[in-house]
């Protein structure tokens, strides 16, 4: 899961290079697939209500979008055209708040069910309009056997992928940032129809999606999330702008990617005197998302909902 960080924010906030350095280290830490993790190709699922974003097709993409099952969940890859799928609450219960949901997957796949649809459904049940962002991905082999072979080779350690220059890596998720910006633009344009208040739209991201969330928030420009959530993403320090949004972050102490990277992001938010809440779970690993596990990491969503309630984005339950 080579995770490349993008750049627009770097020009405005020089600290983005801290995350960039951490992203380089990921090339050597992802475990190889085990027999229990095997992927199986599936038909493209129906995606009712999915709206094509105006960012266009990914330049140079040739393979068709493909889907597979893994870990008892559903994943997409070779996404070349971005979409946004609304999950809207009952208008009578709508709080006016909204969240763009960015699944993870190392920018080569997307955990659409565990870190996308299931999160959006849980938010909608609490009166929050949720929008799952299926952002464009780095191309992978068209066939499942070729994709699995590529993953094995990439993560075997025998032939580690070359480390890109900082400049190349910082430009690596420009398409994904464009997709996120387009998502915010669309939601604000249709805010009245979807019972959303344009200044109450946040973003939650998982792993690579957390990187995209952070880059989107720090890029400024036209997205400007009202709040952000970093769910098991990197926590290296960044330069925090004076108007940085409130931040909610979670990580498991046994996360194989980010547990030993320090908590510079949290400290940076505190130093900037911006609202931040951080939950470090003893166990949970990486990618726990909405999976129901025996670890306390399963409680992250309830904690996130309480945090949103504290800030007034979700109405307190009677």
Automatic annotation (TrEMBL):
MF terms in GO: hydrolase activity
Domain Dienelactone hydrolase: 185-293
Highest taxon in the source lineage: Bacteria
Matching InterPro entries: AB_hydrolase_fold (IPR029058), Dienelactn_hydro (IPR002925), GDXG_lipolytic_enzyme (IPR050300)
Alphabetically ordered keywords of this record: Hydrolase
Protein name listed in UniProt: Acetyl esterase/lipase
Organism: Sphingomonas abaci
Organism phylogeny: Bacteria, Pseudomonadati, Pseudomonadota, Alphaproteobacteria, Sphingomonadales
């Amino acid at each position: 899961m080579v995770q490349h960080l993008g750049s627009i924010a770097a020009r405005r906030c020089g600290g983005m290079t801290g995350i960039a350095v951490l992203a380089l280290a990921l090339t050597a830490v992802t475990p190889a697939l085990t027999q229990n993790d095997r992927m199986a190709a599936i038909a493209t699922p129906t995606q009712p209500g999915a709206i094509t974003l105006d960012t266009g097709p990914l330049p140079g993409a040739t393979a068709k979008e493909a889907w597979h099952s893994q870990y008892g969940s559903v994943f997409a890859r070779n996404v070349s055209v971005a979409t946004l799928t609304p999950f809207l609450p009952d208008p009578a219960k709508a709080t006016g708040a909204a969240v763009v949901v960015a699944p993870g997957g190392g920018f080569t796949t997307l955990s659409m069910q565990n870190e996308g649809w299931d999160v959006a459904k849980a938010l909608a049940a609490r009166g929050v309009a949720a929008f799952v962002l299926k952002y464009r991905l780095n191309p992978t082999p068209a066939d499942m056997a070729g994709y699995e072979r590529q993953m094995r080779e990439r993560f075997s350690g025998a032939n580690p992928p070359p480390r890109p220059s900082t400049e190349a890596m910082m430009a690596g998720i420009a398409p994904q940032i464009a997709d996120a910006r387009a998502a915010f633009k669309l939601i604000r344009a249709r805010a009245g129809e979807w019972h959303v208040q344009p200044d109450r739209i946040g973003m939650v991201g998982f792993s690579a999606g957390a990187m995209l969330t952070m880059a989107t928030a720090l890029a400024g420009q036209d997205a400007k999330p009202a709040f952000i959530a970093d769910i098991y993403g990197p926590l290296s320090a960044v330069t925090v702008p004076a108007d940085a949004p409130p931040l909610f972050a979670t990580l498991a102490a046994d996360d194989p990617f980010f547990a030993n990277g320090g908590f510079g992001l949290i400290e940076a938010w505190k130093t900037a005197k911006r609202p931040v809440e951080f939950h470090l779970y003893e166990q949970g690993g990486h990618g726990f998302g909405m999976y129901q596990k025996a670890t306390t990491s399963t409680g992250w969503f309830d904690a996130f909902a309480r945090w949103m309630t504290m800030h007034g984005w979700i109405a307190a339950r009677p």
